[in-house]
Design a protein that fits this description.
The structure is a single chain. By secondary structure, this protein is mainly beta. The chain folds into two domains: about 160 residues, no CATH class; about 120 residues, no CATH class. The chain is built from two helices and 19 strands. The protein has a 19-stranded mixed sheet that branches. The longest helix has 21 residues.
Length: about 280
Amino acid sequence: MIDARRSVRLVLGTWLVMAATASGGAAQSPAVEQSGAVELERKASLPIAAGATIEVRAVNGEATFLGDGGNEVVVEYARDVPADVKVVALTTPEGLTLCTLYASTDPKKATACSADGKTPLATGKPKDLSRVRLRIRVPAGVHVKATIGEGDLKSQGITGNLRFYAGKGNVLVHDGGGPGTIHAGVGLLGSIDAVIAKEQRGPTLRHVRLESPGSGRVRVGMPVGVSASYMVATQRPAAIDKVFGVKKGDPPVLNGHLGPSGESLVRLDVDTGIAGQFMLVPVK
């Protein structure tokens, strides 16, 4: 782990030197220099150790994470207005942090990508800022944490821990069936779609927690052959496909077991808002 993080710092430090040389030794913008972050090209590969975490903090746009068999994080992105926003990388004790960093419109308030996440990434309203679309390939066993203010978060095939939060947007998760946990949340208007993998590789229980506190739905696609326990907190009647043979209980709490009897491979916990609905559909 330590060697991998040192190699990340070495790569990022090299990019800093190259950037300064290319610009005739000109200093970086205050936001990037103060935070120790490095601006990424439109496609970049970053070394990361198994068990480390890649965190993404985005303001407006979308981010898609794809499970990958390589040993590096591969980042690609597109921006609506390139001059207004940079994508920067920062090493942390946990691994890597990526931020969409916007130029400050307030001379008294600098923007920065910081390890603790307490510094602002932008000073304008998220909906008025340039959209950034990120596509990130993640090695097996690497954990993912992502937040976005305005926009969607998506994943496919992630086997490590996955934690998503979209303030004004939706979340889509295609489970990779690994040993990690899944925790996804949205704001008052967002919806969550999660597809549970047919093959659960454990060895521990796959814990999936989905939270939509407003009017958005939570829809789960579950293979009928996967053994799972569930607890659903909801105010509206749940829509559960008859193939699961569930005797629909009355809100506000539904408890039960899905699939073959015996020890559960998946634990599903869902919490919907007063106007949201839980839906359970079969998938292959």
